[in-house]
Amino acid sequence: MKTEKERRFCQACGLPLSRRVEDGLERDYCPRCRRFYYSNPLPVVSAICPQERSILLVKRGRAPYRGRWCLPTGFAETGESIEEAALRELEEETGITGRVLGLVDVCSYRSRFYGDLLFVTFEVEETGGVLKGGSDTVAARYFPVDGLPSLPFLANRRAVTRYRKDKAEYWAIVDSFRDSVSGGGEGRRRPNLLSDRLVEVIEENAASIARRWMEEALTHPSTAGYRLFNQERLFSEVGMILSHFGDWLGGRYGDGEIRDYYTAFGRRSRRQGVPLSHVLSALSLVKKHLWEFALSRGMWGKTIDIYMTLELDRRIVVFFDKAAFHTARGYES
């Protein structure tokens, strides 16, 4: 690429160029042709080709940074779109074909080898091909996004950082639902489920939830069996249920404890003369007030908040289904 200092003559007439200001910038100018010459950055394309939570890197076979790992990267050619250039470079350097999913990042960069560059990085989905080193590379392999080697190009590092930031919510949702479905809350500590933030709020406001439950339970016909109970003892019982729920979600309370406590709760309720339907309705009302409280404190501005609330709903259902089952068994025994 010729720089401004290297451009001396007009390409059309061959006369020496002068310098003239246009739009506040001094540019090369041909007085005879009345033509300005512009120096524009070279377009460079990079591809982030993911596989699960790994991305494809290539080991460079040429300067600059020979032997270093980077994203599949190269110059766009005349006659191709910027997306076509990214896919061509990916295939030439890795043997992988793909399709562009979206734009990740655009940034400017000044190279001592090529001058001003404009880096455009796309996320690309692998569609075929055989993974191998290419024309300008000696190796190609996938690296975990949390275990990447040092990338020499600032534009590559910036694009990977942006990519990880853009995927953070999606990965958090996937992790949270996976841990929840695989048994989160069942006697072991789960790693940062999304709804933990709401759970903390519920635990801090257990007394308020219990009072709301009592206001309804003492007047609702489906829980009439509790109207003559000592209110302090009833408040304590509901507080214990809420405490169990929080402990179960936090991994401090397992299925064995649910079985033992609620089996005994069912037996105790029978001795107290409360109909089984009233006991189960009381548990259902606790579940209802937990969910209503969560909705009142939930935030709906982002997709991740919606998933968080839906995940909490599932965890509430799982806990109280277990509690109701063991209560009924205890009552019937």
CATH fold descriptor of the largest domain: Globin-like
Mean pLDDT: 86
Helix percentage: 40-55%
Low-confidence stretches: 1-5, 183-189
So, the CATH homologous superfamily of the largest domain? Histidine kinase N-terminal domain
Alpha carbon gap, first and last residue:
88 Å
Radius of gyration over C-alpha positions, nearest whole angstrom: 33 Å
**Any idea how many domains?**
3
CATH-level-2 architecture of the largest domain? Orthogonal Bundle
Q: SSE order, as H and E?
A: EEEEEEEEHEEEHHHHHHH
Most strands sheet: 4 strands, mixed
Can you walk through the features of this model?
The protein is an alpha+beta fold and 333 residues long. The protein folds into three domains: 1-39, Ubiquitin Ligase Nedd4, Chain: W, CATH 2.20.70; 42-171, Nucleoside Triphosphate Pyrophosphohydrolase (Alpha-Beta Complex); 196-332, Globin-like (Orthogonal Bundle). It is 45% helix and 22% strand. Helix 3 packs across helix 7. The protein is elongated and about 110 Å long. 28% of the residues are buried.
